[in-house]
Amino acid sequence: MDNVHEVLERAWGAHSAGEFDAALKDYIWLFDATSVRDTEVAPLRLSYVLSAWAKLAEEHLPARRALVELRQRLTDRLLADGGDAILFNDIRAINDKLGDLQNTWLLFKQLPAALAAECANSALTSMMACGDYPLARSYLPEPEKHLAAYAGEVNAHVARLQLLTDEGMSELLSTVYNYMAEVRLLLELLAGCGEVDAAEALRRDALGLIVSPEARACIDAEFAAPGTTLDAMVELQNATVA
User: Fold this and answer.
1) Can you say whether residue 38 is alpha, beta or left, with left for phi > 0 and alpha for psi between -120 and 50 degrees?
2) Exposure pattern of 201-240 as b/e (b: 16+ CB <10 Å)?
3) What per-residue confidence (pLDDT) applies to 42?
4) Angle 50-59/4-16 helices, nearest 10 degrees?
5) Residues of 64-88 as b/e, b for ≥16 C-beta within 10 angstroms?
6) Residue 170: exposed, middle, or buried by beta-carbon count in 10 A (0-12, 13-18, 19+)?
7) Mean pLDDT score of the chain, rounded to an integer?
8) What single DSSP character describes residue 43?
9) Burial of 56 (0-12, 13-18, 19+ CB in 10 A)
């Protein structure tokens, strides 16, 4: 069996050289090869492999058609067999790359109730992008408790970090970045439902629930100038490499 990392390198090389058909063949193989769950290469499927395939699809129409066909096969399997949240998330990730959030929203509405409950968090962004705030709100009835639970996880994680090291600071910035992404989702949900006062309260809580002064400073800066955290992550990475 071909080595996944070697094939990925070969696919990148073919893509860069304009050998699009060869690259597509490898990306299709790679997606299948990394679809076996609980293997060390499984995380590559929705990161490097899908991202590279989607980039090729921007330049090569057959690559886009192949990605749409893959989505349809996965969708057919999900609806026929009942599937699971992991399979739904694969389809959601493909739709994100295709820029087709409506497909995710429409598929979600076809899921059995139990599976829909498992997949709701993955589909929230698509629901809201399609303007279905009531549906999204029904799966997140207590956003304040959701935020408090997440903030508790952030506090516990940050408390273990060595913030005077580059590694610790990098992890802090990554944690804040993910936390703020969740905060923005909750704020958008409340605003979309017309719950202005609740949104303002949640915005205050997003900062107030965090214990670490360093994390609070990062959150405050991100609220003041969105994108600050990502800029800091890139700057730190460049400084570390240099």
Assistant:
1) left
2) ebbebbbebbebebbeebbeebeeeeebbeebbeebeeee
3) 84
4) 20
5) bebbeebbeebbeebeeeebebebb
6) middle
7) 94
8) G
9) buried
Instruction: Take residue 46 and report the two structure tokens written for it.
Output: 């929705």
Q: Where are the domains of the chain?
A: 4-130, 143-241
Mean pLDDT, rounded, for 136-161? 97
Q: Of 187, 185, 177, give the one whose Cα is nearest residue 154.
A: 177
Please provide the DSSP assignment of 161-222 as one string.
Answer: --TTSHHHHHHHHHHHHHHHHHHHHHHHHHHHTT-HHHHHHHHHHHHHT---HHHHHHHHHH
Token readout for 225 is 């100038």
The CATH class of 4-130 is mainly alpha
- Encoded tokens for 228: 């600050």
Contact residues for 175 (Cβ-Cβ < 8 A; gap 6+): 154, 157, 158, 215
Q: Say how far residue 188 (Cα) sits from the centre of its chain.
A: 17
At which residue do the structure tokens 């395939």 appear?
A: 53
Angle at 140 between CA 136 and CA 144, to 5 degrees: 130
| 193-198: long-range pairs with CB below 8 Å, 24+ | 193/133, 193/134, 193/137, 198/143, 198/144
Render pLDDT for 25-73 as a digit per residue (tens, 0 to 9).
999 999 998 887 767 888 888 889 999 999 999 999 999 999 999 999 9
